[in-house]
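Worked example 2:
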Amino acid sequence: MGGEGMCSVGAGDSTLAALRFLAPRDGVVLNGCSCLARCDRGVVLQLTNTGEFVERVNDAASAADVLRRAGAEVDPRLIEAYGTGERGSEHDEEGRLTEALDAYGRAVRLALAAGLGPQWRSLPSSVLRVRERRGRAGAPTAEQAAWLVQLLVRRSRVYTGLSGQGWVRSRQRALEDAQQAVQLLTLLDAVLPDSRADAAAARLSEESRALAWERLAEAHEALRDISGAILAYEQLLRIEPPDDPRLAPPLAVKRGIQELVLISHRRGLADAAEVREGLQQGLQQVEQVSRETLTRRALEDVESLRRVVDEDIGLLERAAAEYEIGTGRGPRSSFASRAMRDLSTLRKVASSAMSMRCDEHGAAGRLSSQRPLVNRSPSPTSTRCSSRSCAATRPSLC
């Protein structure tokens, strides 16, 4: 295969990736080679079994035609899914996030319909429903699984980018896509038992795992979920530790920075737990002191109010007794008897009310404002009382 150099703008790499994605598990062997010096004709492939050259293999559709010439069967949905995903990446690089999101969504639906992964109840819900695989395609290849994981990762990043434009729940959607990518890796381990046999497939699987866990950590951080970010970073650094000699220098530096972020998150979470525990203890102490203080004050207020009521009622009783003595009428009149009975009832009602309702401290002001003022005089006709109850019972007394 030619066209891998800069003279073809590196299009050979993308063509090789499309061929590996569309190729069945067995029957087709793909190899890269040096330039065939046909850059003016796009990416050029050569079929080793016939020696035939195929020109302008620049997209998924033309790559599928080459595979069909070699006798392989290619699902049309996979062709469209791959091409739509590539268009989504182009929109993403250009900053057209909404168009990229639409393209990624269609690519995911086509890939799932073709049987690359489990079916979700709803997209982008994180609840999985694994269906029995149907159709001729069989289990996906390692390349197909890695492509789908990376597609979900790219769509998750687009959702995060849209969160800054006021999109409702975009951060949550980003988290759900990242969770789906991680779940897809876990589920596909069972149907890819031979992926470790091929060194290239094994490395591709590790790269996809690292991308999925990294995106999950970033999505948790966007939602301020530090605990979730810690778990995701731990998984990421197990797959690709900073001192892994296979990592390129820029990626090794990035993993080293993420290790520092993980340490910072752990310390921050521990400090927050200590502060929370201290606040809880302090609040419990304050609550206990406040409860005791409020109870003591409430009892003092009730006792003070009871004394005021007793004084008011005692004053009314004395006023009634003085009236009887001042009139010189021997036995108490019908008014005096009725007033004394009313006063006794009032005392019982007031005592009961003061015991049951501790929060009606304002009643003391109203009761004290009704305190009777009695002017003693040797003449019965000069007796005056400001009590409203007295005036209501016998107006001639007031």
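The longest strand covers residues 45-46. The beta strands are 45-46, 53-54, 119-120, 128-129.
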